[in-house]
Amino acid sequence: MVRLHQPRLAEMVASLLRDRILRGELADGSALPAQEELLREFEVSRPSLREALGILEAEGLITVQRGNRGGAIVHVPKAANAAYMMGLVLQFRGVPYSDVGAALKQIEPVCAALCAAREDRAQTVLPALRQVHEHAMAAVDDDVEFTRVTREFHQTLVRECGNETMILMVGTLETLWSSQEQAWASQASTTGEFPTVEHRETGNRAHERIMRLIEDGDSERLEAFARVHLENTLHYAMSPGPVAVVEPQALRGNGKHGYGR
User: Nearest Cα to 138, choosing from 149, 127, 129?
Assistant: First the structure.
C-alpha cells in the first residue's frame, strides 16, 4: 500500500500565499495582510503561520519585519535573483569564469539569430542596438566605459531576442560575465594592458555587421559570425578564477539593462 505524504499546514499556507504573489494579487513592495487577519483566514496556529512565512522568506518572496512595526513585505521574483542564485551554485562548485564565457560563446549567438528572425526587428531590435552602438563609438577612448557599453550591446541582443526563457537563462549568464569583464577592464586600464583603439574599432565594425545581418534577416550567417566575434572578444576577460556572486540588491530596479520581468 502506497502512503501519500500529507502536506503540513505551514506548507499549504505558504503555497496559497505564493500563488497570490505569482498571480500578481499581491503587488511588489506591498504588505501582506496582518498576521491576525491571516490567522483568521487560514484557521491555523500561530506557529504554523510563522513557519509558512519563514518558507516564503527563504524563497525571497517576502521580507518579514520584526518588532513593533512587524509585518511582511512582498517581493516578486526578479531576474537579478536568478543571477544571484546561479552565482552561488557556480561559486560553491568552484566553476571558473572561463566556463561561463565558454557557455556564452555557444548560446548568445542563438539569441542573435533569434533577433534576425523577428518580423518586427526593424522596429524593436535595431533601434535598441543602434542607440547602444552610438554610445560605444563615442566611448572608444574610455577603456572602462567602452567595455561597459559594448557589453551592453551583447546584453541587448539577448534582451531583444523575443524568447522569454532565453532572455532569462542567457541574461543570467550575461550578468555574471559582465561583473567579471568590468573588473578586468578596470585592472587592464590601470596596467596598460587594455586593447588598443584599433582593436576597439574592429569590435565596433563587427557590431555594425551584426546589425546589417539582423536587418537582412540572415539568421544563419549571423549565428556563425556572432560565434566568431565572441571567440575574438571574450578571451580578453577570460579568467581561471572562480565565479563570484553578484548581489541582487545591486541589480534590482535596473529596468533598462535588466532581463525578464
Answer: 149
